[in-house]
Amino acid sequence: xxxxxxxxxxxxxxxxxxxxxxxxxxxxxxxxxxxxxxxxxxxxxxxxxxxxxxxxxxxxxxxxxxxxxxxxxxxxxxxxxxxxxxxxxxxxxxxxxxxxxxxxxxxxxxxxxxxxxxxxxxxxxxxxxxxxxxxxxxxxxxxxxxxxxxxxxxxxxxxxxxxxxxxxxxxxxxxxxxxxxxxxxxxxxxxxxxxxxxxxxxxxxxxxxxxxxxxxxxxxxxxxxxxxxxxxxxxxxxxxxxx
Length: 243
Ligand SMILES: Nc1ncnc2c1ncn2[C@@H]1O[C@H](COP(=O)(O)OP(=O)(O)O)[C@@H](O)[C@H]1O
Ligand SMILES: [Mg+2]
Description:
The chain has helices spanning about 45-55, 85-95, 100-115, 130-145, 160-175, 190-200, 230-240, and strands at about 5-15, 20-30, 35-40, 60-65, 70-75, 150-155, 185-190, 200-205, 210-215. By secondary structure, it is an alpha/beta fold. It has two domains: about 1-70 and about 150-243, P-loop containing nucleotide triphosphate hydrolases (Rossmann fold); about 80-145. α2 (about 85-95) runs parallel beside α4 (about 130-145), α3 (about 100-115) crosses α4 and α6 packs across α7. The mean pLDDT is about 95. The structure holds adenosine-5'-diphosphate and magnesium ion. The site of adenosine-5'-diphosphate has 12 residues, from β2 and α1. One of its GO terms (molecular function) is ATP binding. Keywords: ATP-binding, Nucleotide-binding, Transport. This is ABC transporter related protein.
């Protein structure tokens, strides 16, 4: 596997003086054209790691090298749609911010909204949508910038279990289908089964300060059957390393 992103001994603390919180402790990781899940307990530093990969936060030490031309799409953990904009204009917003014409931005947004099943909802406002549909808009908006890497921070954690399960399968299918520009996906989660269902590799982090406890290759064919013995064996193996 040819790495697209290389992290070397990335460390990060917050605060100063006597109130320093060490969050990441020497994280080394190569990321290629694959679906990676970053799995760890709440508060261990997963979101911080994802923000460092995206360049939103800077590490205190260590290095991140990324292939020259890579771009990121980000699906944030908390709801981030602007209530006064339609679904279409929410999805087009990052493109308009990049200086693309309104027409072109809307055309692209329309295409990605339809890929996530929101054709016909372009003129709706966020408060008219269910939680699952809002998250579809967030995903379409991240895809519309046509990124090489899709970063997702606990994208299904706020959804009811049935909606979350449908969306997980759709996101994996969309990625595998090759109709988007996404080469690699990095998804933060605290859900072991979700990681085993979706990812090629699972990077298990320790409690804060987060270190890499173990990297597990899932290696099961897709679509994955949660009830199969092979699936449960990997879930059990992952739980061994989750402290
Ligand atoms: N900008 C910040 N300033 C100060 N503390 C922060 C900041 N961002 C995160 N933290 C703290 O760092 C720790 C890890 O946060 P985070 O990366 O969000 O964890 P996770 O996503 O695994 O739940 C938490 O204790 C959080 O309060
Ligand atoms: Mg988080």
